[in-house]
Amino acid sequence: MSVPPIRNPLAPEHLVHPDDINAVARSVWPESAERRDDGELVVGGIAASELAAEYGTPLYVYDEADVRGRATRTRTAFHDAFEAIGASAKVYYAGKAFLSVGVARWMNELGLYIDVASLGEFTIALSGGVDPARVGFHGNNKSRAEIAAAVRLGVGAIVLDARIEIDRVAAEAARAGVRQRVRLRVNSGVHASTHDFLATAHEDQKFGVPLDEVASLVATIRGHDSLEFLGLHCHIGSQIFDTGGFSESARRLLAVHRDLLADGPVPELNLGGGFGIAYTEADRPAPIERIAQEMAEAVAETCANLDIPVPTVAVEPGRSIVGPGGITLYEVGTVKDVRVAEHSDAIRRYVSVDGGMSDNLRTALYGADYTVRIASRRSEAPAELVRVVGKHCESGDIVVDADYLPADVAPRDLLAVAATGAYCFSLSSNYNYLGRPAVVAVRDGQTRLLVRRETEVDLLARDADFDVTAMKRAGLVVESEGKS
């Protein structure tokens, strides 16, 4: 009879001691992730060590088939659910989760619309071949230059976030001689069950307008010949597991939607995104088919009660499409044990890697949890509680706050952190003058570079006093390893 392991008092309650420290749980890792016979982690048919040798570390890796599959599954789920109630649905991919020209092409090929929040994201979408008419433009403080460019280039819809934006967009549309389609972002008052910084529909925050101001603002929109009102928009938060919040938000918005119909058409209703994913085995996100069905049922029931036609419903998932298919590879640099006296002299093992908060800010920003495994080999050593930390000059530079790795984890081991496909590259920085990692797609044993690694030369190129030739001559500029 096996003796259960002694639980480290530093381990959080949700963290389960693994039966197999080498296992990669299907609920957390990309679809293609597996251990090959020698124990090395393989994604998309490519071993972790091969990826590290070719592109360097840290490295963002996307299972292209996984991302494409989730995009298709999401589009199909909402199409089918709303078709069943006699309506239609639009699925916008929320580019803020992760956007590159290559990913924009994937989403375009798969029939998704694109949601952007800056001129930069809009430019990437257009570079990926996306029809500007299939783009929605967000933002609580869109610059006049962004509004002008979006209108001039034929953006499909601009989401108005404040009263002052109505006149700004109307003026630019009139100047361009077009009738610009717009949505109005509303705070539904539904508080998502998520981190305070991720809940975006409560009253005391920067996005949207209160429900009681909607009628007045829509009247103002309709008073401009250069604007066409599409409907209301609401986003209740991110990383949400409970589908009830979306349904309740829909019911509240549709009550206002009904009143707006008295003075003109309201063809659409945008219910936003924020669908959660599994970062650890303790997470239990709802399947996208269930989310779509329950949202459709809530919309159909509410419209029937209000005696109004069901509008076209739009949603804006990002994380749930691209998050699970991404991992980040790191190389271990140092390992040390720290005795934590206030917990009965418990030991916390710190495993330092060659990246950190510059490539994954979510742990420091939101207290996010992640799953980590050794990627370069299999180990028979017992599981040890670890904290994976970065190389930055910050005590809060934590990549994985708590998970288990084999007790023999050592320098030069490759680690893989799961579910880093969303908001890691997007939030990345050059803190301590580290270049941002490369981004690579893997599929069927092939790799394709999506974003090349930043070198020291890239970082210093904007410094007006930097002389790259002199620095290279002096040997002070060291190019990053890996062909990327």
What does this structure look like?
This protein has 2 domains: 34-58 and 326-418 and 437-453, Lyase, Ornithine Decarboxylase, Chain A, domain 1; 65-322, Alanine racemase (TIM Barrel), CATH 3.20.20. Helices cover 28% and strands 23% of the residues. It has 484 residues and is an alpha/beta fold. The termini are far apart.
Shape, per Cα inertia axes: globular
β-strand percent reads 15-25%
CATH superfamily of the largest domain: Alanine racemase
The overall number of domains is 2
Major sheet summary line: 9 strands, mixed
- Count helical runs: 13
Number of strands: 21
Low-pLDDT sequence parts: 194-202
Helix content: 25-40%
Q: Give average pLDDT, whole number.
A: 93
Question: What is the level-2 CATH architecture name of the largest domain?
Answer: Alpha-Beta Barrel
What name is given to the CATH topology of the largest domain? TIM Barrel
Query: What is the radius of gyration?
Result: 24 Å
Quickly name the level 1 CATH class of the largest domain.
Answer: Alpha Beta
Label the structural class.
alpha/beta
